[in-house]
Amino acid sequence: MTIKKKAVDGLFWSFIDSIAGQGIQFIVALILARILSPNDFGLIGMLAVFIAISESFINSGFSQALIRKQSCTQKDLSTVFYFNLIVAVIFYGILFISSKSISVFFNEPKLQSLIKVLGLSLILNSISLIHRTLLTKELKFKLQARISVVTSILSGAVAIGFAYNGFGVWSLVILSLCRFGINSLLLWFWSVWRPVLVFSLKSFNELFAFGSKLLLSGLIDTIYRNVYNLVIGKFFSAKQLGFYTRADQFKMITSQNLQSIISRVSFPLLSQIQDDTERLKVTYQKLLKSTMFITFFLMLGMGAVAESMIVTLIGEKWLVSVEYLQLLCFVGMLYPIHALNLNILNVKGRSDLFLKIEIIKKIIEVPVIVIGIFWGIKIMIIAMIINSIIAYFLNSFWSGKLIAYPAKEQLKDIFPSLIMALSVNLFVFVLGNCLDLSPLLLLIVQVATGVIITILICELIRFEEYLYIKKTILDTLKKK
C-alpha cells in the first residue's frame, strides 16, 4: 500500500472513529447537560487537571517511542505495560491520599469522595495503553473505530440512566469509569497481544531516552491546558467553571478531534518516511493544506452559529457559554497546525527540541493565567488567542528547518483557506443576528447557508484544497 493510500485509509477510519465514537460521546454530553447543572460539570472540571497530570506520567512518552521504533520486541512491550500499570496504581494512591487537600483548596467538600472514585479510571486506562499503541502503530484505525463506537454507546447509556435517576455529578464519574473500563475490555478482547512476565531495564532505558523528553513536554502542556480550570474553579466558582467547560467541550469536539486524527495518522505514517526529507515535506504539505481548510471552516463556522447551537442543544441555562465559545474557536482553530508541526519534531527524533519549545511556550503563557485571575475569563481567552499565534511561530520555526518548509511558506499555503472561511462565516454570523427565528430553525438556516455558499464558491473558483478533499472522499467511498 502506498503512503497516500495508507494516509487516506488511516484518515478515513480515524474520521469515522471521531465522528461515530466522539460524536456519540458528544451527544451523551449534550443529554447530560440538559439533565445536570453547570455546577455538576464545574466540579468535574476542577478534578480534570489532577487526572490529566496523572495520565501524562502513566504514559511517559512511551507510546510515541514504541510507534517510532521500527521493530518492537515482546520485551519492549511488556516492560512498558508493567511500567504503565505500576505508575497508575501509584498515582491513584497519591490522589486518594490528597483528596482532602484538593477538597479544601477548592472549598468543595464533594470533591473528596469524587476524586477517590474517579481516580480509578487511571488504572482502567493504563491496562490497555499498549494495545491501543500497537493498533495505531499498525494503522489499524478501523478496529479502533469499532471499539470506540461500542464503548461510547454503552458508557453513555449507563451514565444517562444514572443521571435520570438523580445521581447528579456522580453520573459524570460513572461515565468516565465505564468509558475506560469498557474500552480496555474490548481492546484486550480484540487484540492478540498479551504481556509476558518480563521487565527489561535495557528496553526501558532505550525507550525512556526518547519518551522522557515527551513526558516532560507533555506534562508541561497538560498542566497549562488544564490550569485554566484550576484558576476559574479557585478564583470564580464551580458554576462559572461549568459554563467554561461546556464551551470548551464544543470547541474540543472539533479542534481536538481533528488534532487527534491528524496526530494519530500522521505520526506513524510520516515515521515510515522519516529519512526521505523531500518526500516527507510533500506529504506534510498536503496534510497541512487539507487539514487547515477543514479546520478553518469548522471552527469559524461553530463560532458563527454558537448562540443558536448552544440554546438548541443544551438550553438557555447555558447562554453564558456562548461568548466563551466564540472566543475559544479562534484558539482551537490553530490546534491541528500545532500538532502537525510538533509531529515533525518527533518523526525526526528531536524530542529534545519538542521539550525546549514546550518550556518556552509555557513561560510565555504565564501572563495569560495572571490576566485570567485579575481581569476575568473573557479577557483570559483573548490572551489565549494571542498566545496560540505566538506558539505557532515557535512550533513552525524548528519543524520548518528540519524539512525545509518554513512558517512563511506554510502561511502562504493556508492563507486562502483562512480568508475564504472568514468571509463565509462572517456572513453566516450576520445572518443569524438579522433573522428572527426559533433557535433550532435559525441553526438549520445558518448551517445550510454556510455549507451551500462554501461549496458554490469552491466549485466556481476550483479551489485546490476543496477539490483535493472532494476527490479523496469520493475515491475512498467508492472503494469502501
Supply the key terms.
2 domains; 480 residues; 0% strand; mainly alpha; 20 helices; single chain
How does this structure look, described?
- With 480 residues, the chain is an all-alpha fold.
- It folds into 2 domains: 1-235, no CATH class; 238-348 and 388-480, no CATH class.
- It contains 20 helices and no strands.
- The chain has helices spanning 3-35, 38-59, 62-68, 74-106, 111-118, 120-126, 129-137, 141-164, 170-190, 201-235, 238-271, 277-304, 306-314, 321-332, 335-347, 351-375, 377-403, 407-434, 439-461, 464-479.
- Helix 2 (38-59) packs antiparallel against helix 4 (74-106), helix 3 (62-68) packs parallel to helix 7 and helix 4 packs parallel to helix 10 (201-235).
- It is globular, with a radius of gyration of 22 Å.
